[in-house]
Amino acid sequence: MTNATTPRDHDAGADLAERIRQASAEGTPLRIIGGDTRYFYGREVEGSELSTHEHRGISFYDPVELVVSVRAGTPLAELEAALAEQGQMLPFEPPRYGIASTVGGMVATGLSGPRRPWAGSVRDFVLGTRVINHEGIEQRFGGEVMKNVAGYDLSRLMVGAQGGLGLITEVSFKVLPIPGATQSLHLELSLDEARLRLAEWGREPLPISAAAWLDGALHLRLEGGPSSVAATRARIGGDDLDNGFWTALRDQRLPFFSEGRAPLWRLSLPHRTPALELPDVDERLMIHDWAGAQRWLRAELDADTLRRTCQAAGGHATCYGPRPADVEPFTPLPEVLMKYHRNLKAQLDPKGIFNPGRLYAAL
Amino acid sequence: MNILYDERLDGPAPEMDRAGIRDALLKAIPGMTLLHREEDMRPFECDGLSVYRTLPLLVALPDSLDQVQRLLVECHRLGVPVVTRGAGTGLSAGALPLTHGVLLVMSRFSRILEIDPEARIARVEPGVRNLAISEAASPYGLYYAPDPSSQIACSIGGNVAENAGGVHCLKYGLTVHNVIKVEVLTIEGERMTLGSDALDAPGFDLLALFNGSEGMLGVVTEITVKLLPKPEVAKVLMASFDDVEKAGNAVGAIIAAGIIPGGLEMMDKLAIIAAEDFIGAGYPVDAEAILLCELDGVEADVDDDCETVRQVLEKAGATGIRQARDDAERARFWAGRKNAFPAVGRMSPDYYCMDGTIPRRELARVLKGISDLSERYGLKVANVFHAGDGNMHPLILFDANREGELAVAEALGGEILELCVEVGGTITGEHGVGREKINQMCAQFRPDELATFRAAKAAFDPHDLLNPGKNIPTPARCSEFRTIKSAAADTAPGAQQGGQE
Fold first, then answer.
1. What value does the mean pLDDT take over residues B387-399?
2. Which of A155, A220, B253, B456 has the smallest number of CB atoms closer than 10 Å to its CB?
3. CA angle B479, B488, B415 (to 5 degrees)
4. A115-124: average pLDDT
5. Strand order through the sheet with B112-116
6. A19: which strand partners?
7. 3-state class (DSSP) for residue A294
8. Mean pLDDT of B77-106
9. What's the mean pLDDT in B173-202?
10. Contact, A292 vs A198, CB < 8 A?
């Protein structure tokens, strides 16, 4: 086990629990924040601010067990640095929207980066959580072991719930070794050709760990043992690409993300979905990440039309902003599904104090 | 404390009017097979944990979704509990029937609806066998990764209900990591889709919540799983050790070398001897422990990794290392492990399989603890261990025909699970809580945490009609569990704690 304690480590659990007890007693809604770098990802919450940023530090890390437990307010950068020191990583490559990004925010939003289709998402690597419930009691679900099916999987349920079911105070993750070799490639291919190649490669055990098409080229990353990466690189061809490309894509620092004023949309689709039939949208001006399963679009268009088109293809669309006043950030849920979302919210947050309305007005 | 449903501890189990309910169901769902005679229902009285048996009120064998839906609506209206059953191979009595409930058997839903090699997904009905998915995907060079030892018989619906694992979990994940979408019927008969054909879906991650929920939140009617390209090669190394602790340390050393094996299994002496006697896998019967380490992927990488692992094993003090020369020998190495349960079964009239997971660093302490408990209770224990992910399967050897021996085996098993919790582990890694570990849930969770579980259940099933009594113990049961535990702790140290019933 490593001792990763830093002087700034602090357990603020008792204070946070007290704030929640008060809010519960008074029925005051809380707006939960960590680094507040993901403020744009959801509806605005009216409430008294509850920050986790004092509650920080790595409480447990054993590289041999492949397990790390981290307090919610810990900066993501601090966690990633501690893992890198041991040759390990968070395999899902969470986007960092600023140096203040915290582990709690990463889990609450549940967003993953370029490696997601091959390695898995945030929730896939969550082993356990500590959560302060509506009564101000810290509870532990899951744990620090790889396999655990005791009780319901409330720890994975917290991922992406945006704090609406309780305050996440600590999370245990499975971590993995950083691959032995990495090689990024740039292949001049049309979007259609890239789709065909990816479909073909996807059925073979090739060491691909990222694939994004933009600006007339397929950007590919190979990761694995040095031998297989070299062999695959020789077979696929293309030009060398700086590995830093993936960091820029992951953190949305490519020019695409800051150009223009049109709203940024994230389309989550089955990866083989052909070009969407949308008026005035040129697919070649989009970023097709995750081998086509995550597409970034900048456009002024009718949200309902876009969402209907994505839903017909088996996916959904999220508006990252700037968001027109009448557009919801997340695709509305079918009626039955929404009923059970409301039931769950009412059961776990009966007074509606945790980030009310963050995901949907009714939650 | 009784494992079978106990009204005093588990809540009311009202006397049901079998004939009246049968009439109502047949009227609402004409044409559905509904068994009611004792001799017809007898085969359904237990699941894979056959020491616990209960005859259900009725057994429904629907063959259309419409029938399932109407059955749920009708049971909901009548207030009759519903226990859903897949292939019945579960090892925690999760599908144990209730005398006051209908057993809903999903085995007739056994069609593979779609294999899409381009999308690398399979869409199947819940009664499809786990292995059948990989077989159907095989012509496309694809397979379904989770492979519980029962994969030849267990159904994918049951895999979802239990969040089933297997020997390749460390690298390829559990069921929850490999299911992308499920269609669900609620207790009120509403249809709901959780997850999607894309890589995520809006809203709460109810798909994760339903995986491993033991049929207590809804009935899964269709499942979409992801398929993976078959690894180019798989090679397996077998290392023998003269000391269990050395074998345990070798596991950590392999992972510390930055290698994630496809499979990493450990067996102790009793399990080695049993397997060798049964299968003739070529195991060294004089070893205290063996490790099986499978490396899979692209051939060049696998060869590099085999070399690294060999060096690590040597350094860790292995007394012998063999690499399977060909696929036939590799299959033989695995056959010993995959048949370890029945092999141990041949040594003893009955065996009872535990499923705790521990942090790997605690292995030596836990094995020592198990050995002490084994001695104290006077029952042998063989250890089979998914060493890579810390999931242990101690097998307690006993004879159910001997008066009181099942109770002793249960008490020994309970103490092993509590030991797992004590070292920071869990009472179940992949078999589920069901009825079997209902008491130990009180050791793993506090009353307020159990209350949160019950709240989550109430969101989907407020009247507690879906598989009541499983997975989450009532406050009454935990209060009795704690009373018994503290009474046992008050007696002299080392006192016989068996036979608490």
1. 94
2. B253
3. 85
4. 98
5. B112-116, B121-124, B219-226, B179-185, B191-195
6. none
7. strand
8. 97
9. 98
10. yes
3-state helix, strand, coil in chain A (%, to 5): 30, 25, 45
Residue B321, beta-bridge partner list: B239
Given CB atoms, is A271 within the 8 Å cutoff of chain B? yes
Q: Does the beta-carbon distance from A336 to B425 stay under 8 Å?
A: no
Under 8 Å between Cβ of B169 and B265: no
Q: Is B139 on the interface with A (CB under 8 A)?
A: no
User: To the nearest whole angstrom, how far is the Cα of A47 from the nearest Cα of chain B?
Assistant: 21
Looking at the DSSP assignment, which residues form a beta bridge with residue B85?
B105
Banded pLDDT at A259 (limits 50, 70, 90):
confident
Beta strand residue intervals within B196-248, DSSP E: 219-226, 228-229, 233-241
What mean pLDDT, rounded, does chain B reach? 94
**Overall average pLDDT of the B31-58 stretch:** 96
pLDDT for A279 beyond 90: no
Q: Where are the beta strands (DSSP E) in A175-207?
A: 176-177, 181-188
Instruction: Give CA–CA dist B118/A196, Å, rounded.
Output: 10
Residue ranges and CATH numbers for the domains of chain B are 7-105 (3.30.43.10), 112-229 (3.30.465.10), 233-342 (3.30.70.2190), 350-490 (3.30.70.2740)
Secondary structure of residue B469 in the 3-state scheme: coil
- Going by the DSSP 8-state scheme, the letter that residue B210 receives in this structure is H
Res. B497: pLDDT tops 80: no
Structure-block tokens of residue A13:
């659990």
Secondary structure (3-state) at A237? coil
Instruction: Kindly tell me if the per-residue pLDDT of B2 is higher than 90.
Output: no
Rounded-to-5 percentages of helix, strand, coil across chain B: 40, 20, 40
In this prediction, residue B490 has a pLDDT band, given cuts at 50, 70 and 90, of confident
Closest CA to A132 of A13, A240, A242: A13
Please report residues of A whose CB lies closer than 8 A to that of B427.
150
HSE of B110, CA atoms in CB hemisphere, 13 A? 13
Contact A203 B117 (CB under 8 A): yes
Predicted confidence at residue B494, as pLDDT, reads 46
HEC readout, A112-161:
CCCCHHHHCCCHHHEEEEEEECCCCCEEEEECCCCCCCCCCCHHHHHCCC
H or E element at residue B464: none
**Running DSSP on this structure, what letter comes out for residue A56?**
B
Q: Write down the pLDDT at residue A4.
A: 54
Residues of B in contact with A151 (CB under 8 A): 433, 441, 444-445, 449-450, 453, 471-472
Interface of B with A in 217-256 (CB under 8 A): 217, 229-232, 252, 255-256
Enter the ipTM.
0.97
Inspect the interface and report whether the beta carbons of A146 and B206 lie closer than 8 Å: no
- Pick from A2-16, B70-84, B382-396 the range whose average pLDDT is largest: B70-84
Q: Check if B449 contacts A (Cβ < 8 Å).
A: yes
Q: Is the pLDDT of residue B498 over 80?
A: no
Q: How far apart are CA B439 and CA A39, in angstroms?
A: 44
CA of residue A89 relative to chain centroid, distance: 15
CB B413 within 8 A of CB B364: no
- The closest of B74, B70, B97 to B85, measured between CA atoms, is B97
The confidence score (pLDDT) of residue A280 equals: 84
Name the closest residue on chain B to residue A89, using Cα atoms: B258
User: Do the bridges between strand B112-116 and strand B121-124 make them parallel or antiparallel, or are there none, so unpaired?
Assistant: antiparallel
A-B contacts at Cβ under 8 angstroms: 268
Digit-coded pLDDT (tens) for B157-171:
999 999 999 889 999
**What tokens appear for B444 in the block?**
């793993």
Name which of A126, A152, A359 to mutate to probe chain B: the one with the most chain B Cβ atoms within 10 A of its Cβ: A152
Contacts of A268 in chain B (CB under 8 A): 196, 198-201
Domains for chain A: give ranges and CATH numbers: 13-177 (3.30.465.10), 181-250 (3.30.70), 262-321 (3.30.70)
Q: What is the pTM of this model?
A: 0.96
